[in-house]
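To whoever picks this up:

The parser on our side crashed when reading a file containing two proteins. I've narrowed it down to the boundary between the first structure block and the second sequence. Both blocks are reproduced below exactly, byte for byte. First block:
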Amino acid sequence: MARAEDPDREGKQQSLLRAQLARREALLGPTYRLFYEEPLHVVRGDGVFLYDPEGRPYLDAYNNVPCVGHSNPRVAAAVSEQMATLNTHTRYLEDGILDYAEALLESLGSGLRHAVFTCTGSEANDLAARIAMHNTGRRGFVVTRWAYHGNSYLTAGLSPALGNGFPDPPSLRRIPAPDTGADEEDDLVEAIADEFEGAIESLERDGHGFAAFIADSLFASDGIYARPQGLLKRLAEIARRRGGLFIADEVQSGFGRSGERFWGFERHHAEPDIVTMGKPMGNGYPIGATAISAEVIAAFGEQSRYFNTFGGSPVGIAAAQTTLDVINDEGLLENAEQVGKLIKSGLNDIAARHAEISEIRGAGLYIGADIQDPVSGNPDPAGAKRIVNRMKAAGTLISTTGERASTLKIRPPLIFNAVHAEQLLETLETALNP
């Protein structure tokens, strides 16, 4: 006999949601934020899907942290086995951290000789900034206009994307991100290079000096700009000529995310002095790293020490090593490129039918689509938010990015396939035709 539907089921669910929200606010306070107009309660993740308490699946086209999939069985098994065997810090001799460091550094290129492990990308960027200041004897940094590089005290000062409520520190200068719709690519590179030179001169005039330029090579917080691909090479050359360093923040763009290359800076043919990473590195287990050239870290290592109790722990290394193995074994770099092309092609088809979508940008499985007012052509953050919430209601998760939050952000796990891409595109078109 079939179970009768509860006529008040939806009302009970809403009541439970309100109670949970009230409890969350009381316990966690006002600094936390939730996604979506109607927050999503998730209890389980599997592959590219998240599940609510009712068992409803949501296609996750947003989360890059579980880059090889939610609850990846190989990563989970490796973490569990290592946790049951040994978990301590880096002040004992162990083979795992050496094997992983060797593989990681080999993937980064010959210029980067040493790896220092952290728990997060914020910690990795914080350490990179400290090393840059120590190496150069200066305190000035240059970032892109709406960059995000972390939430420690130091990295928050390098992160305009945290909001206009926090003024830039005196030792920070901003330059534009590469808005590819503005100029021809060669002209755009030179225009930004001129802005960069001016920013360095400003830091020097004000007595801060120039320590480093730090950039995410997909300019994700600025709005996702994958081109021009030679921009970072040009800016890195200027940075070194002016006595500073180039820090490649690979938290967003590394580990095969761009599809074209394993590391985002490689797309630009740039040679960083320091590379930072985090988020997807352990597929959800907190681990990050700062990779540094021998010349840059030499004096810092002699005169200062860095120790992170949990950074580089055996369990963290097991998560990172297995994540790297899965990316390589399953061809996820190639998958990101192929599926990313399918998504971009589908977005262009949709844009041809919907004037709300203007420019489409990105590389691999990091894609942005600008939403505009179809009449005025102005950026439409309210429209972008509406689309995101309609898609969530239909079972597909994305978000927004950019200074105006008017760019749809599509950034799924690297195991996303053609079937998932089709569902994403169908849901988007439905959201554009309410």
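<<boundary where parser fails>>
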Amino acid sequence: MDRASPRIDTAKADAHLLLMNPEIKPHHSGHKLSAFPVACWFLALMAFVQLLVAGMALATRFEESRVVRVVEKEVP
């Protein structure tokens, strides 16, 4: 006897056995990616782009502050 208790609902036994038995592999027609990982990757990409934009803005501001300004004064 391989089970501790007899099975009561024998009508839909296949659906339950797929979840309980790791040796039975469910048949998947294709890999479906859920929305949550896609949203997480999209947010991570947007955060990376914002970091790049902020870095470029700071670099441009820093370069503008280092520009040498020449002021010519005429001495009478």
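After patching the parser it read the second block fine. Helices lie at 13-20, 35-65. The longest helix spans residues 35-65.
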